[in-house]
Amino acid sequence: MRTFLDEHFLLHGSVAEELYHGHAARMPIIDYHNHLSPQLIAENHRFENITRAWLEGDHYKWRAMRAHGVEESFCTGGADDWQKFLHWAQTVPYTLRNPLYHWTHLELQRYFGIRELLSPETARSIWHRCNEQLQQEGHRVRGLLEGMQVELLCTTDDPSDDLQFHARIRAEDWAVKVLPAFRPDKVLQVADPAVFNAYLDKLGRSGDVSVHQFHDLLDLLKKRHDFFASMGCTVSDHGMECLVSVPCTEAEASRIFDQIRMGKPLSIPEAEKYQGFMLRFLAELHWEKGWVQQFHLGAFRNNLTRMMQTLGPDTGWDSIGDARQGPGLRAFLDDMDRVGKLAKTILYNLNPADNALFATMAGNYNDGTLAGKMQWGSAWWFLDQQDGMREQMQLLSRMGLIAHFVGMLTDSRSFLSFPRHEYFRRILCQLLATDIGNGELPNDIPWIGKIVEDICYHNAKRYFGW
User: How many CB atoms lie within 10 A of CB 60?
Assistant: First the structure.
């Protein structure tokens, strides 16, 4: 019987062990999409305790705690930090077979050297040991990143952000490179005129302009795009339920813009026309600068109205959506290719029913100019677990070229989440080792080990130009 979470965790046999320990494990980490705070990195923040480092902002854990019957005060509410940690410790034994069970104990091992299972009985001891280490210099934010061999990470930043904390990090010439990513979702979110107009006012202040006319918005977005580029940004990200691809002229978009700027709600066709125009406008900016554009598609967000009104977004009330993805994807990608302005693109889907669609749709638009120009991205959010990762890699292998895959990312708000790269790498190595053992791949460890290293590190470094 294997020991839980031993050095060969998720690896079965000498080939998988050699691929992981001899190749994957030694690769640095490039985390090209996450939601980490650049302010905490710039200030080299010291977390007061493990609750602040581990539970704040982690809606994965909050969902599990709620499912276990934990009251909201111990998730996002005003309970003290020890009580929040204790309620998480009470929940963890019941997360068995959920990826949280593995992630929790991997993080305790990798960051704190703690091998005991977290439970109500061990909670007090683990609380004290983690807190003691968090007060050490090596467990401040930068030490946590350095300890996991993070070479580069991209945060997720709104166009209105002044990027002052990125500037501070950049000025220090720190060993870990921290870059912004351009996330203009709010420019497309026109369902609520009051919210949209308040955002445009904020965006205008960031560029010291007033956004009265539609051309004011377009000019400002170009300037903000240029500013992000001057700060080292080469990546954009778009989170949408589905891609909108409704033809719309600039004159039509301007008329629609005037309507919503006056506080008048839009019809669904009007909103889709405006979104279709803006999406293409932004995609052209990405192409002009040679950026990589990412599209995270398929979530139904903020489903519980009561808690959305109480806590706001990104607090754990989202689900897999079943919006139809194909027509918008096809129209958008084909339109950008037709005018010769299709940037390097990574597509992520949340509904596993769309896996084959995304895998093959990405393949339609490779043009021979770059290996793996169009990427079907790693298993995302609810699919970020063993079955989801395996299925994504299996299907990518069958319908594309996994050898050019740009690999894993954390998509996390926690500085303790980087063992997810290890999780992915172990699953990848076992997948390839199984094929070798079955005689479906040659027992050529140097070559397949090189492919592993490429997927874990080199492909992303080449693809993003870092």
Answer: 20
Condensed to tens digits (0 to 9), the pLDDT of residues 98-111 reads 999 999 999 999 99
CATH number for the domain spanning 291: value is: 3.20.20.140
19 lies in the same domain as 84: no
For the chain, which residues score pLDDT lower than 50? Answer: none
Q: Domain ends where: 139, 162, 196?
A: 139
pTM for this model (two decimals): 0.97
What is the rounded distance in angstroms from the CA atom of residue 393 to the CA atom of residue 385?
12
